[in-house]
Each structure stands twice: as structure tokens, then as C-alpha cells.
Amino acid sequence: MNIRKNIYSLTPQELADFQDALNAIKADGSYDDFIERHHHAMMTATPMPGEVVDSLLRNTAHRGPAFLPWHRYFCRELELLLQTKKKHVTLPYWDWAADEADPISAPLWNTDPAAGPVYVGGDGDGPNGEVTTGPFATWTALIADLETGGFVPRPGIIRELGSTFGGSPVFPTAQQVEDLILNEPAYDTDPWSRASPSGFRNRMEGWNFDPALRSQLHNRVHIWVGGDMGPGTSPNDPVFFLHHCNIDRLWARWQHAHPTAPYAPVSGGPVGHNLGDTMQHLVTTDATPARSLDYRRTLGFVYDTDPPLVEPVSPVVYFRNVPVGETLWRPAVFRVRAGAPVHLEVVPGSGLAAPYGLTTQGGTVTHTPVVDSTPFDLVSLWLAFTGEATPGAAAAGTVQIRCVETGEVFDFILSGDTVRRQTTGVMFALDTSASMRRPMSSGLTPVQLLREATAQGVQLIRDNSGAGVVSFDQDGHAVVKLAPFGPGLSQRDDVLAAVNALDAAGDTSIGDGVSTASETLGEAWLPEGLTFSTWAMVVLTDGQENQPQFLHEVSGTIPWRTFAVGLGAAHPVSTPTLTRLTSGTDGRLLLTDTLGTDTDSRFQVSTYVQQALALAADDDVVAGASGVVAPSSEVRIPFQLTETDIEATVALLMDTPALKLTLEPPTGLSLTEAELVAAGVAVTHSNGMIFCRFGLPLTPGAGAHAGTWHVRLRVDEEALGEATGKLRAAADATPGRRTDLDALIAHGPRYSLTVNSWSNLNFHARLTQRSMEPGTTVRFDAVLSEFGRPVEGRAEVVAEVRRPDGVLVTVPLDEELPGAFTGELTMVMAGIWQARVKARGHTFGRTFFSREQRLSVAVVVGGDNPPAPVVGTDDPVDR
């Protein structure tokens, strides 16, 4: 807001900016225009019919009703000019009545920086009364030449502080000001001149005054400052504008004290002084008294002594398309024009019945206006709506919000509707070409990892969402059409059976696989009345194409959001095309690099598939961890849940199904798998995975919700013995499995834990790759929102990047916009760069949260212009 403040309350920077801006417009000559226009306004008579033409009786800007509107515009024009030099400068006022006890010693005239701020310099102490101190000591004044009508320059500003009137240096008092504001109900009276017997305007201007009190107010200050403040060229002294800004402030106070008192005359008065008359010698188009009255709206400024002007932007607060169980915040928004703090509060008992309610920020908001160049501030009091159990329109709600300062109460209508929770239809496109059966250093083959990762991902897909399967070698094969999962439906089992039956043989056509998956996705079987909210494709491949259709031939035809997991090192043929395919559909490409025998490599494909499914379902990854659990020991893994989380999923991957999981809520209560199941929590063992999914708060955890949770892992000794025997037999048949056996015996089962949440706190990270060649700069972007609002100033985000040579690099992401973070990294080394983007912060409810996402990027020599794949050039095992 353009907030006009007492000059004594300006900060040192505000004062310096005001002084610098004044000096700048004086230096370029634009200030002198105000001196000339004010003089001409005083010389332009505005008589009524039958009156003598006499500017001393009444003129454009003085001795008549337009005195206050004209100067209101005049001050605003100067303020706008100052803002061309310093954007947020506003015109301060000098509250001279506060200095009436000893005006000659007022801080305004201070000249000693050690004693306080130097505002305008002191009294005229030069040879001719010129001001030689302060920021305006070098100014040149303009003196009117009455013979030529022009102006003559004169060095210096002249002041004669304490100039007398009637033989005594009287000064306006605070009592006189208050008496005028409170006890003069009329704006002006006939004959609309210096002779008007009553009215606020004439008393304020100083022509009609009580001789006993010498209460001239406006005129008295001009006379008391003296020197250049006396004639029509009085703007020569910048004190003119401090004085007139205060005059305008006092008029504003009178307006607020007498809100029904009209401006007068409406018509029939002197030309230029009627309500709708255009006033002369102003540069503002259509400057009329009428347009000056509602100055906060029409002229865009307020005083720090004004009561606030508070207006609702809309009487209705809408909560649209809120999924079942989720909470959305939406604001009751007010336009506020105020120069001091404003307090808004929900009136207790005025509504807000469920599903509407208050937010964690409570039912009050305090807004402290900031001095800037905006015409008003937007102030929000946030309200909440939680999606009901049954989709549809909610009954309308109501709430009242009160402005504490004014006592005004505003009525709002609340309108919301609930939609089904997001469901996702996922089509898996799985590479089953012969290269996928090539053994890796771990003894496993890519197709084994593909089957395991896909089966585990299928288990994690919620009911009402669904999946289908396409496999591809040299051709695409629709294995299972897309259909929903749910009780009484066989689709999940059908998909799992198909995935577990996949084998690898033949050449490779990723283009055929993606194209077939896209077509099959479009042919989804859905029960009548059911549809998926979102659709996605998840591609798993080692990326070695050797048969048409090639991926680059079809990637531009894929309309679905596509995620791809690349098993192995970056390949110069298909990695660039996979990158373009996924980035062009708002998906992700996740590359494993060459998989070794370490724990992270063992679970990396499954972890990537789970993240792709979480992104497709708009879930958030809260935390991840991996390691080993030695016999007779316990691993305790912490993770954070918040009051914004609605549901949590804990997924434990194991290379040996011999671990027991215990969940420990923040209350410290320990819940075994059996106790979780007894309490109605879904716990599933399948395909080397244990996962449990539970709503929040967790009732068995004594209503546990926000805080630090733990997963505790221990070895199941009996299951470990059985698994060791099976693995020993497998190692005898497949020597490559000896590594897994040795690791199990030496260290115990390996694990990878991921915690996801369905939440009102959402985190999205992505990267933009300018080039695929070494030396490219990659940009990381991350966005955090809570209840639909940006997480502003409450979080830190970093990208932990592993270079192709294994060196870790940390890239801090700066908060570029509210809740939006960005950072860049130059990638000089060819290979796969893997990143874990992590966010840490606190919610609106002041509880700690964590979020993370994995990203990867391939840097390939020749990657910007890869050679076209050639038929039959893949590894011979494919043929």
C-alpha cells in the first residue's frame, strides 16, 4: 500500500529514499513544475456570477471549496513523480500540532546528525535567510516575476521560523485540531469563499477563525515557517508538501468522523469548485472534487491514522473437486486499505459445521501493511473443507468474519463438493527380449528383476485403480488388458500370474512395445460408471533396440503419462529417445546404471517402479532406507508423518523373506504384524515384500498421527533357516547365486524400506536436461504445497547427486518463488547421474516433514545426435 506516515516515524532508509527522490526530481527540473502550477492556481480567479474577478477572494486552489480536493491531487501528483525515482516512496506528513508546545525546537528542523535524523534542514541562517543545512541546502528557488508572468531563479530556500502574525508567533494546537474535526459537521457554506461563516474547509484553511484562539491552522503554519512558504511559489520549500500532506490527513480524519457529510457545493457554486467540476492547473485527467473524496479507492493511498477499509473480494468461498478424505484450504479474501495492522477473526458460533472448518492456522489473521506502490493489500483468512465419504455436492455452509478495528461483520457462503479419490490405470510395458536374460554380476538376470519389481508394484496398487500388461520382444504382445482391481475381481491375480510367467527370448522393438501398450491402455475394460482419474504407462527395458518399430518412430504418438525404468548402463541408441518420451509426457526416466552386488543395486529396479507408481497415483515418498539385519539384532528405522498425512504405506523389500516387521507410532507403542492385522490394518506378504497400509490417525496406536514413527526389523530365525537351504540349493545349480548365499550367511537378510503417504502435503521434483552431451547443465526443480498452498519459507530442498564415478555431490535448491525451489549442476562426465531430491521443513501445524524423490539423467557422448538403430545389431543373444 501507499501508506503515508508521520515523517518522524520513517525508517532511516525510508527517509533517505524520500530525500533522494526529492533531490532527483529537483535536479531534472520536474519539481519546478509544481512551483509554477501552484503559483498559477493562486493567480486564477474563480468568481461566482456577479462577483468581482479577484484571485484574493477565491482562486482555483484556495479560498474556496476546492482548496482541499485540489491539494489532495497536487500532493498525489508529487508522490507519483517521486515514485518514478524510488518505487516505494510515499509522501510523509508533518503533524505540526504535536510540536505546538515548542515548534522552534521541533525535530523537523534538526541539523545535527548526532542528535537525530536530519529531515529538511534548519532555519534560514544564510545572508538573506537561506537554508544552508540539510538535504535541500543547494536548491534553487523560482520567484514569480509579476511583470512578465515568468519565473526568476534564486539561490537557496528561505525560511523564517517563528514568523509573526498579529504581533505573536502563535502556532496551531492539538486542541484546535480536535475541536475542528469533531465539532464542525458541514464541509463548506455559502458564499463558498474566505467569507464563509462556517464549515470545515474555511476553518481548516484559516480564513474563518476564532480571534481568541488564533486558530488559523493551514495559514498559520505557512506564516510561521515564513520565507518561501508565504507567496504563491510556496512549493519552493519541500516543507510545503509535508504541511499539505498533514492538511489532507486531517481532512481524511474529518471525513471518517462525519461519513454522511456531503461535499458542498454540488452545483451552483463557483466554477471549478462544484462537486463535478474539473479543477485547473493539475496534470491528472478529470481531476474533480467528486473523484477525490474516496481517496483510498480512487487515488490509491492511505494514512497511518486512517481506519482500515476492508472489503470482501467475493461473498462465496468455493472448494471444488476435493477427493474423498483429502482437505483443501481456500481463503476468504479481503481487499484491505490500511496504514496500521488489521485483525480479522471468525465470529464464534457463526457457522463452519463439517465438512467445513478452520485450518491449523486458526480463526484469526493479523495483517501488517507494507509500504509499497500497490493500491491495496489482499488479506486471506483460510478455511478448510474435507472431502466427505460419499462423492457429491456438500450442503452449503456459512461463516461470519469480523474486522476487529471497525467492528464490521462480513457474511460468507461456503460451497464445496467431493469427488472420488484419484484412481490410476497403469499399463506395464515389459521388455522380454533375449538380452533381458543375460546374467548380471549378482547372478540374477534383468528379466528376474523385472518380474520381481513389477509383481511388487502390482501388489501396492490400490483397489479401484488397476493395471494391465504388455510384453515386447521384436513385437508387442497384449498380455492382460487394463482393468480395475478390487474385492471379487480377479484382475490383480491375473496380472500377477502373467508377470510371473514372463520369459525372455527374441529381438527387441521398444517402439512396438510402447505402441501396443498405448493402444491397449486406450482399450481398458471398466465396469459401467467407473473410470480412472489418471492413466499412466510404465516401461521396463534394457534399452537395446534392434528391430522396428523403433522408439523414435512412435514416441510422438504416445498421449499417456509415461515412466520408464532403464536396466543397465546408458545406451547411445534408446536412452535419448526414452528421455524425450518421458519428459514430453510429464513422466520420468529412471536409470539403474550397471547393477552390482551391493544392497542398493539389489532393490533398485523395484524401488524405481514403486516411485513411478507413487508419482502416477500422486502419492509422496516420505523416506527410504536400505541395509542388512543381522541375526539376533534389531534395526530401528525412523520416518516422519504429519497431521497433513491421510494414509501411510510402509513397503519392506527383502532379498530373503526372513524378516519380521514391527511398527512403532510416536506414542512408543509397538505393534507387531499380527496386532496390526487384528486392528484392521492391511498387511501383505508377497513376492519378497511385506507392506502395510493404514489410515491416519492410527487407532491401534492410541490415535497416533504426527511425529516420529519407527519401523523395527528383526530376523525370523526359522524362516532364515529355510531360506538359506533353498538358496544353497539354488547356488549349487546356478553358481552366480553363490554371492547371495555368502552375503546372507555373513551379514543376514538385506532390505530396502520405503514409506509413502497419501497426503495434503505434496512434493514434486523434476530435472531439465539442456543437452545429453558431457558438459551439459541440468536444472533441478521442486515444488512443495500443503492443502493447495505453496510451502513458503518453511522448507529446505537439496539434491544429493551420485556421479558416474560414485562421488557424491550436494546441490542446494534455492526458493525461487514461494514453495518453488531450483538449482543447477554441470555434468562433465559421461554416464548415469543419479539424484535423490530431499525436502525437509515444517507444516502449517509446526510439525516436521520429510519428502524425497529419485531422479536420474544420462550423459552420453554423441547423445544429442545418436545414430539410428540398425536392424539386427543388438547383442547376439537376442537372435
Keywords:
879 residues, alpha+beta, 8-stranded antiparallel β-sheet, 18 helices, elongated
Report what the structure shows.
Strands 30, 31, 32, 33, 34, 35, 36 and 37 form an eight-stranded antiparallel β-sheet that branches. The protein is elongated, with a radius of gyration of 39 Å. The protein is α+β, with helices and mostly antiparallel strands and about 900 residues long. Helix 3 packs across helix 7, helix 4 (about 175-185) packs parallel to helix 7 and helix 10 runs antiparallel to helix 11. It contains 18 helices and 37 strands.
Unreliable runs: none
What quaternary form is this? single chain
Structural class: alpha+beta
What do the pLDDT scores average to?
92
Approximately what portion of the residues adopt beta-strand conformation? 25-35%
- Quote the distance from N terminus to C terminus: 74 Å
Radius of gyration: 39 Å
How many β strands by DSSP?
Answer: 37
Principal-axis shape equals elongated
Given the structure, what is the number of helices?
18
Helix residue percentage? 10-25%
Biggest β-sheet, characterized?
A: 8 strands, antiparallel
